[in-house]
Design a protein that fits this description.
This protein has five helices and eight strands; from the N terminus they run E-H-E-E-E-H-E-H-E-E-H-E-H. The protein is an alpha/beta fold. The strands form two sheets. Strands 1, 2, 3, 4, 5 and 6 form a six-stranded mixed β-sheet that branches. A two-stranded antiparallel ribbon has the order 7-8.
């Protein structure tokens, strides 16, 4: 199973690592790989590809967008599981494919039909950002009613939900014969 992530601040990597840990415990081999380092060629067409992609300033990271464009051109694409990691998902109802604007637009733009699509809330940690990123994210938080104190560090990711998503992915997995 391909488990791929696109991250800038590490939260999507941590989510992918947690998914891999839970999938391996469920008997599904999965090793997270950074999309920035490699574009894998799908193996077994029945084996899902999982993409965990961060959103930065309203868009999924370029390596995720490039991969999804490549995926869409495959003649017989394997099933796609798509997770969008963003701070909008911290709000009720904004964690679904329909309720999350970034996920919804990405699915539509690429003409995707994921077997599972979910937005996952990320982590807000101003101290980890560059000065410019901190200012831009604080501005976005002003507009969306989020915390703006530059000392703020909040873990919005609900790890129990990530674990439940791993169980759903495991149910999609077709073991090799």
């Amino acid at each position: 199973m391909h488990l791929l992530y696109a991250t800038r601040d590490g939260q999507s990597r941590r989510i992918a690592e947690r998914l891999a840990l839970r999938l391996n415990a469920l008997g599904v081999a999965a090793t997270p790989r950074a999309l920035a380092l490699a574009h894998p060629v799908p193996g077994d067409p029945a084996d899902p590809i999982i993409v965990v992609a961060a959103v930065r300033y309203g868009k999924h990271l370029p390596e995720a967008e490039q991969f999804l464009a490549h995926y869409k051109r495959l003649v017989s694409p394997p099933p796609l599981v798509l997770f969008s990691v963003n701070l909008t998902a911290r709000k009720p109802g904004k964690d679904t494919a329909d309720g999350n604007v970034y996920l919804r637009k990405t699915i539509k733009r690429h003409g995707l039909k994921p077997v599972l699509a979910q937005a996952i809330a990320g982590r807000l940690d101003y101290a980890r950002y560059t000065w410019l990123d901190r200012q831009l994210i604080r501005f976005i938080m002003v507009l969306t009613g989020g915390p703006t104190d530059p000392r703020t560090a909040i873990e919005y990711t609900q790890w129990d939900k990530v674990d439940a998503l791993a169980a759903r992915i495991a149910a999609l997995h077709v073991p090799a014969r």
